[in-house]
Amino acid sequence: MIITDLSIPKKDQILSASTIKQLEDCSWLHYVKKILMVPDIGNDGSKRGSISHLIFELLLNYRHHHHFTLIMRRGFVAASKSIERLIIKHLNQQGINTPENRELVFDMIWVGLNQDFYAEDGVLRDPEQEFLIESKEPYYKIRGVIDQMAVYEDRIIVKDFKSQKSKFTQDELLNNIQAMTYTLACRKKFYPNIKRVIVRFILLRFPDSPIQEVEF
After folding, report:
1. For residue 192, what are the CA distances in angstroms to 57, 120, 131, 143, 187?
2. Where are the alpha helices (DSSP H) in the chain?
3. Separation CA 186–CA 36 (nearest Å)
4. Tens of pLDDT along 115-168?
5. Which residue, among 164, 152, 148, has the nearest Cα to 113 in the 3D structure?
6. What are residue 199's phi and psi, to 5 degrees?
7. CB-CB contact of 198 with 215 (8 Å)
8. How far is CA 17 from CA 5, 30, 46, 54, in A?
């Protein structure tokens, strides 16, 4: 039997920037993870990144600002015993509590906290802002989460904390799908009247020069 009724609804295909990049980089890997649903057990790097993000999200809550103040005044993350215990707890839960991983996580968090963490001259939105962009022509739906967003009079600065081992090349930066989706989200969903959107990647493994920016 041939079905000719094209009005049968199709399942929504909601993409993310990471899904699009994964499909571009390796369609087989995309098929294994997204179609066959083979579990991704992660690696030490991704686990270190998730712990760092957890601490950043926690410290962006004003109730925990005193931990940030203590850390910055004394010059090291373990100055806050509560934050130190939380990091160790999650290192244990992730099964990566080794001296090397502990040092890396503490160092990465210190780098992130030193990058105008509270956007002193702007208005800081709540962390982990979720968005869904929908377009009819061309048709697509893209979902994502913005780590940190600061709003200024003439621009928006989106911060994205990265735990990767290498910096973006110029080509990777200028064609960064994640940065493009953040720009779309700011212009279409959050602040359509503000045209300048700067995406600032904070590369936590590069303490001497952690910032790479792109603007479309």
Report:
1. 25, 23, 14, 18, 4
2. 17-25, 27-30, 44-59, 65-74, 81-94, 99-113, 170-174, 177-185
3. 33
4. 999 998 999 998 899 999 888 888 888 899 999 999 999 999 999 999 999 999
5. 148
6. -100, 120
7. yes
8. 33, 13, 17, 21
